[in-house]
Structure formats: C-alpha cells, structure tokens
Amino acid sequence: MNIIVCVKRVPDTTGANVEIARNGRSIKEEGLVFDTNDWDKYAINEAVRLKEDYGGEVTAIALGPEEVEDTLRRCFVTGCDEGIRLTDPAFEGSDATAIARILRQAIQDTPFDLILTGAQAGDDGYGQVGPALAGLLGIPHAVLVTNIEIIDGKARAHRELEGGLEEVVELKLPALLTIQTGINEPRYVSIKAVIKMMQKEVKTLSLADLGMKKGDVGKAGSKTRIDRLSLPPVTKEMETLPSEPQPAAARLIEIIKDEGMLA
After folding, report:
1. Could you state, in order of their start, the residue ranges of all structural domains in the chain?
2. Hey, which CATH number is domain 2-216, 3.30.230.10, 3.40.50.620, 3.40.630.30, 3.40.50.300?
3. What is the spatial distance between Cα 93 and Cα 223, in angstroms, rounded to a whole number?
4. How far apart are CA 69 and CA 261, in angstroms?
5. pLDDT per position as a tens digit, 118-148
6. Nearest alpha-carbon partner for 138 in 185, 104, 177
7. CA separation for the pair 168, 178 (Å, rounded)
8. φ, ψ (nearest 5 deg) of residue 104
9. How far is CA 263 from CA 88, 249, 254, 256, 257, in A?
10. Residues 185, 187, 188, 194, Cα dihedral to 10°
C-alpha cells in the first residue's frame, strides 16, 4: 500500500505574544517556534502504522521554504520513506484551493492507494485542503477520521460527528482521509535515528517542475484572500469565588442574577 501524507509547518502560538504584522493580513513570525501541525502528526503516525500493517511506502509532501525540510526529515524519523518539498516564490499567497491544485500536480502521476492529511491546520483552522484535493483528483474522501481499516480494497473509516456521534463509512481505494487528533499514540524515537534521518535527501519541486503557470497559484490562482486579521477583544478576567461554601454560593447567585438567568 502506497500512502501519501500531506504535512504543514505552522507556528506554535501557545503562550506566545501574538502580534499582527504590518500588512494586517498575517502575524509577526519573529520569535515564534515552528513545528509540524498537530493534526498532521497524527496523520503521519497513522500512515506509518498502515504501512507496517499492510506493507508499501509512505511519502510525505509539504509546501514551503527551506525550513520545511526539517519538518520532512522529522517525517523520516517517524517512518516515512520519501519526502517532497514544493517551493516557489509564486506559491506565496495561495489559498486552500490553490494549495490543493499544487498538491494535485505533485501527486497525480504518482501511484497511490491512500492520501492522508490533518483534519485542519493549527494556524488557519480552515480544514479545506484535504476535501479540495480529493475533488481535484476525483477520488472519494472522508473527514475527521478517528479509525482506519483496510478491507478488500476499501478503507473503512470511523469519522467524528457533532454531539459525540460517530459514522462508519467505506470508501473504494484510492481515497483521501483527513485525520482527527487522538487516532493513535505518539511514536518515540531515538536520538541516533534522528541524527541519521536528518541527513536524508528531500526532493524539491518548483512551479516549473510541476508544469504549472503563475496564474494557477498564489493570489492569481486563489478564490479567496485574507482581507484583515485582528486579535480577539479582551474580555472580563476570571473571578475566583471565596473558598467558604456560604460566601461562594451567595456570590454565585449574584452573578447569575446579573446575567439575567435568575429572576
């Protein structure tokens, strides 16, 4: 089974002082730590698990600058066999549709049984690239997948629904699945393996290598654009109630009345 997993390098904004960049459409990246998108980490682990269960190879693909190579080498450490970085100045400003178009060009001539992506990205939260890529490739897809089985040339996927419900669907291979967090356990690797895999070669493909034109990507090839970013407004801070039960209950009743939930 040949599996392609799409990954993304994103900033870790947990506990960071996030500021809007001067252009108003992005955040300042100076001082931020970058890492593999959390949802994509689960997709990578799941791809390697499926390879171990059913054989084949796993190819990791990422779009971005030279720093993305470190992300792909981490995929090698986890168990991926090949890594491809898609990079070109023309890709700057691509929306989900344009990114899916770039990935389609990189993937379409490569034999595959399954494509895995994270359910969404931690920086924009859109969750659109996976379904858009499936549409461009003309293959079935399922989103928010929490369990995968391969049976008789089909992928049986358990997917998360609202309200704690779950749906089980079967898709004829080749297919695309977007992976939800918690589908598997993190893999731990040795320092020796990390050092070894850091030397492995990453294949790089540009706009010309993919046979694409500038009008297909970037702002020109995008159907949407970010007009303006803003930080959420500061609201009331948390209030700590008294430790004694009677004063705590009295204050809680006052709050409920103030909010109009009690006559």
Report:
1. 2-216
2. 3.40.50.620
3. 11
4. 54
5. 999 988 888 999 999 999 999 999 999 999 9
6. 104
7. 14
8. -60, -45
9. 63, 16, 11, 9, 7
10. -160
